[in-house]
Structures are given as C-alpha cells and as structure tokens.
Amino acid sequence: MMEYNTQRKKLPMPEYGRGIQNMVDYALTIEDRTERQRCANTIVSIMGNMFPHLRDVADFNHKLWDHLAVMSNYQLDIDYPYEITPETTLHAKPKPLAYPMKRIRYRHYGFLLESLLKKLKDMEDGPERDALISLVANQMKQSLYNWNKDGMDEEKVASDLAAYTDGKVQIDLEHFHFASVQSRSLGGTAMGLRMQRKNNRKRN
Predict the structure, then answer these.
(1) pLDDT of residue 194
(2) Of 48, 32, 36, 43, which is closest to residue 71 (Cα–Cα)?
(3) pLDDT of residue 185
(4) Is there a contact between 113 and 136 (Cβ–Cβ < 8 Å)?
(5) What percent helix, strand, coil does the chain show, rounded to 5?
(6) Residue pair 117/164 in contact by the 8 Å Cβ criterion
(7) What are the pLDDT digits (tens) for 162-171?
C-alpha cells in the first residue's frame, strides 16, 4: 500500500526533506557518542551542500547546527561547535515595527510628492524648475483623481500647488498644459524628471 507524505510524521524543517530527517532520526539511535558525533558532522555537511550559494553568508554554519538541533527536537547529545539557539528564541516572533508617521498636509498627495514640493519651493528659476513644476502639477492632478474622481479639478491643483510653495509657484491655467489623467505613478514622475534632466544636459 502506498504511503503518502500527508500520512507521515510532520517534518520540523521541510526544506531539508525527509531523507535528512531520517538521518537525524538514525543519529538519535546511535549509542556510541563518538560515532554519534561523526554522524552529526556528516549530516551537517550534507545539509550545507544543499545550499552552496549560502556558504559565504555570515553565521551559515551556525544556522545549520541550529537546524540539526531543531530536527532532533533538541535531543541529540553531541558536542555542538556553536552555542545552540534556544527553541524559545528561535521561534520567537519579531517585535512589530513602529509605523513611520509623517505629517502630511494632504494625505492624498503623499509624503514623496510633498517632499518634491518642498524642493520646488526653494529652486531657482530655469528649465529644470519648469520641468519639475509640470511633472509635479500633473502628478498632483493624477493623485487627486485617484483619491476622488468627482472632486478633481485643475483649479484645485493650482491652488494646492501655490499653497504648498507659499505662493512661489503660480500656474496660469490659461496657458499651462495639464496631461489627461491615466494610470501613472510617482515613480514614473521621478523617472520623467531624470529623463528631463538628461535632455537638458544634452541641449547644453
């Protein structure tokens, strides 16, 4: 009768496979300590060969011996070359990271866009500033549209842009060209700014 893996004992470290687990189980039955130690060394060597790309990673060998201890349910009586990480520490959940709270005037524009607006506020007149005004204004329009399609209008974008820059950037709606809203991201805007800078250097 065929035996399925679902009917077998659950593996504590599935990434090593059942063959390695069987070796560990066998090592637990060896009565001679010297022979048991030799068997453990061989098992760890085989485990390391399964992940050759990790051999240069710091503490890789230490982790292998930790994993051997786990697979033996911490019952393998040998001389470990490292201090084995306690089971409670090995399986402890990491502490939750504090969510970075940043003060944003209008949350629908986002922190990254507000950072660009602060930079724009202090830029000197020139082609690069004009290019950034165009990119930022169009991204503001896109963000406003994504947040509330019915509440988006170009006059509000112009008003918010002026407010962010303390009136230093004023858009003439009769002459300023807004792009139509589409599937865009701020990453695309940043890329567009880099391309614009590159083009400006070529012209100069």
Answers:
(1) 55
(2) 43
(3) 47
(4) yes
(5) 60, 0, 40
(6) yes
(7) 888 888 888 8
